[in-house]
Predict the structure.
Amino acid sequence: MKVVVGSEEKISALIAEDFINVIKNKPNAVLGLATGTSPLKVYADLIEANREGRVSFKDVTTFNLDEYVGLEGTHPQSYRYFMNDNLFNHIDIDKKRTNVLLGVGDYESFMKKYDGMIEDAGGIDIQILGIGSDGHIAFNEPGTPFDSLTHETPLTQQTIVDNSRLFNDISEVPTRAVTMGLKSIMNARKIVLIATGKNKAKAVYGLIKGEITEDMPCSILQRHPDVTVYCDEDAYSLVK
Ligand code: F6R
């Protein structure tokens, strides 16, 4: 596991370059994408690089990590809406090749097909992850089996509280999600994780130095051969 510590601007720019390099080497690369606040600057940098002609997304395929159960893709807090709004609407990507789990309708059968769809696309070449303050990656909350594939899960109270900042009221935060599993994530060839802020410090300690345990889902990444953790000083503060 490689660790890079720097300002949010710097680490976001480095992650954007990681993505650009993967796409340069393989124009039809398969990208694993995340939502949340953490990757926002990375996506802004990728939009700029696309505008400047430094990278093209026209042949890439994307798979997102997760979606809230109960939200339509048109709901402003859904992850499909987030991805369109913060990345896909601003780059030369073919939206038909952007895959986000469904949160409504027959979302269960789509969820069951998801790992097979990733495999059929050739597997994820580069996966970006954020991290929850409780150590979750995607919505794999503490206690999720390491061998899990894409599944439906309740969200912990901690995650509901953390995510309520993006809703008008905590009562509006969905209590369930569909998410790629820990095994689905470990199947990616290359993983980059971004963590900023003091509220991530405990999870980052567990990620880098903690015991490998299902109680700290991110700790499984210690077993992956190609992970780079990008964090700011605050998120790194307990590791030193
Ligand atoms: C989002 C996701 C979540 C977030 C995590 C951190 O697709 O999978 O695991 O990465 O909850 O969220 P932020 O970045 O908002 O602190």
Summary: The helical segments are 8-25, 40-51, 79-86, 107-120, 157-163, 182-186, 201-208, 233-236. The mean pLDDT is 97.
